[in-house]
Fold this sequence. Notes:
By secondary structure, the protein is of the alpha+beta class.
Amino acid sequence: xxxxxxxxxxxxxxxxxxxxxxxxxxxxxxxxxxxxxxxxxxxxxxxxxxxxxxxxxxxxxxxxxxxxxxxxxxxxxxxxxxxxxxxxxxxxxxxxxxxxxxxxxxxxxxxxxxxxxxxxxxxxxxxxxxxxxxxxxxxxxxxxxxxxxxxxxxxxxxxxxxxxxxxxxxxxxxxxxxxxxxxxxxxxxxxxxxxxxxxxxxxxxxxxxxxxxxxxxxxxxxxxxxxxxxxxxxxxxxxxxxxxxxxxxxxxxxxxxxxxxxxxxxxxxxxxxxxxxxxxxxxxxxxxxxxxxxxxxxxxxxxxxxxxxxxxxxxxxxxxxxxxxxxxxxxxxxxxxxxxxxxxxxxxxxxxxxxxxxxxxxxxxxxxxxxxxxxxxxxxxxxxxxxxxxxxxxxxxxxxxxxxxxxxxxxxxxxxxxxxxxxxxxxxxxxxxxxxxxxxxxxxxxxxx
Length: 449
């Protein structure tokens, strides 16, 4: 409805041109007045030019408006009287579009400044570039981390960090790497993470970088603390029975601070003392070897596989704990016969059983009729199973799976290392560790090899 005036102007102009054309032919053919006809022809020509200008003016205004919109330029000016006179609705529509366009452009500029401010104030370094290595965005943190300041191409990094520009350019989306950056104040360790987006049919690579020097130092300290805790745990587990055996030997060989006379020493006491000394020697050597192998890797030592009877393992562990468990009134049951032949690391398997038996001894300390039982059998798939069972306090169901988490413990005096280490050792043997427990009834740990 707002363009009725425009249509009326077009119609009037067309009628005037038609009338001029009619009069031209009338005076030229009927009245035979060429001079009058020529004047009318000039008028018709002027009317035609006026109509063309009138239409083109509207097209030109709309064309300029669309062109400015396309070029993202809101500085559009047009003849307000002309538009208001001929297009009442169009004037309002154009004004509204221009206002919205200006507001959107302002919003975009504000957002752009906002994002730039964020990038310059975040602690992570952000670097974006195209496939050719041309840098599109680089915040202050990135320049500080790289020690290069603003750059326009990754090749410029070669001036300060040889090979880093090529390394970053070759990163694929999702890649992560760490690089040592040489700076005047000292070397720093940076972590790089790469991602990719697509803008205007062009792949843009974004690399985020962070200084992890401090975190790595803390992690290294934490690793050493954990290593010390593990070694301390294994030393304490072995030293308690060793001390007990040493005291037993002393009781058999010493009386009132002096060595017993030969005639008071029985053959059984001597054999028992020799056997205890032999176990102390073997366990001490095994402990020293464990520590030496463990500290070299700050992880599990490499396995030394050999074949040996499971019964030997049970007998050695039973003898190792005999004195301590006798003093505490805890009987240990081992199988009368076990024909299973193990292919494993003898020292490591001994370490596992020592940990498990130690846990059982603690678990039955408040049990009226305590008992610890070691057994071996074959499961349905003919896998070798070694079991350590006790009738102690048991473990609540909600904590049953957590006991294998490093440093998790159900006891105030516990370290939370033993069961975790046992599972690691058994996994190194391609085996499995399973635990079953009921509060008040006891616990059974089954090793499947």
